[in-house]
Every structure is written in structure tokens, then in C-alpha cells.
Amino acid sequence: MLRPARVADATADRVAVASSDGHLLVFPVSELPAMERGKGNKLIALPAGKRGQPRPAAVAIGLRAPRRQPRDLFRQAHPDAQPADVERYTAEARRRGAALPRGFQRVDALGLGS
Known about the structure:
Elements: E1 14-19, E2 23-28, E3 58-64, H1 70-74, H2 83-88, E4 98-99
Antiparallel strand pairs: 1-2, 1-3, 2-4
């Protein structure tokens, strides 16, 4: 279970999703469709697991307001991030996202808070 995050501006705030195989996807909150109760919502495309290995999973989900620094979003995954670095991981919802740099691909959490 993840803590809920308050969305201040659905057109400006961004959702960040990190997967267990070292990919990060950032997209606008406005791209999340309203789902019927209990239907769930696909945030990131995850490939089928390789033979004998478990399928990758989403390991961290967070919210980034435009006024916050990128290092607040990445903290652990990409501590020296600059604003242009966030754009590298930005794509449409339900896409794969981009691979994090070598050495930062194991993500346990995204450094987000209020």
C-alpha cells in the first residue's frame, strides 16, 4: 500500500512510477483516466518476465509538483538530477519509460513528500 498524494493541479502535477527493472516513467496526472470502482489503473508498461525470473513490477509511485526540484523526485534514484533530466523520463501514461542510469537502477522508493 502506498500513501495517497494530494493533487494540487492535475494539468501541472506529474506522476512518477519506478519499476523493479530500473525504468522510470513521468507523466501528467491529467492522463490518468477515472476508473470504475475496483477496476485498477495501468500506470507503466511492464514486459513479461524472462524465463525463470519474476515479471518486473512497479516498486515506487510518487507525485511531483512543477515547483519542486527534480532531486526531490529522484532523491535515491538519481540524486544529481536537473530539470532537463526529468524530461528524459517523461512520456505518455502506460508507456515503458526510460532506463535509469547504471548504478541507480535499484529503486526502493521515490523521495516524495508534502
